[in-house]
Design a protein that fits this description.
It is built from eight helices and no strands. With about 160 residues, the protein is an all-alpha fold. It has two domains: about 80 residues, no CATH class; about 70 residues, no CATH class. α1 packs antiparallel against α2 and α2 crosses α3.
Length: about 160
């Protein structure tokens, strides 16, 4: 979808989704939901969000596949929905690890695509939400450094 090829991405993903649906349970839910996430984002970028079938599939799987749901929210710029979703997960003892991990800083990608940059900015906006970060602080913390960052070069 990046680099102005959204129509091509949509044209490529639609037959793959159709084939995956025809194969039924041979294609796992995570793969199917990820494909529908790509389709939903492409439709959103093309201004065709009224076709909500793929977005509905991703939304229905939000509890089982929260990363796919957050990717959809980032793609569509639904910051308030993302905040609410993360807050609900933080309130659930069995689910709070996802927001704690999702909000951690990550390495900057060297050749970041527009969608990667959009997602990084989306996460940064979530991290700047005082109420969300207060809720995080009750259960853990968001580090102020990237855990998997490379060691500094020696001089």
């Amino acid at each position: 979808m990046d680099f102005g090829r959204t129509e091509a991405a949509l044209a490529a993903i639609e037959p793959v989704i159709a084939e995956a649906e025809a194969l039924g349970p041979a294609v796992n839910e995570g793969a199917r939901v990820a494909m529908h996430g790509v389709r939903a984002c492409a439709l959103h970028e093309l201004g065709r969000s009224q076709d909500a079938s793929s977005a509905n599939i991703v939304t229905a799987a939000q509890q089982r596949l929260p990363a796919s749901y957050m990717a959809l929210l980032a793609c569509t710029g639904r910051l308030a929905d993302a905040r609410s979703f993360l807050m609900s997960l933080l309130a659930n003892r069995d689910r709070r690890s996802f927001p704690l991990i999702y909000l951690q800083p990550v390495n900057q990608v060297r050749r970041a695509t527009p969608s990667v940059l959009r997602t990084q900015a989306f996460r940064e906006r979530l991290r700047s939400d005082d109420q969300l970060m207060k809720a995080v602080a009750r259960h853990g913390r968001v580090l102020d450094f990237v855990v998997e960052a490379p060691a500094p070069e020696r001089r």
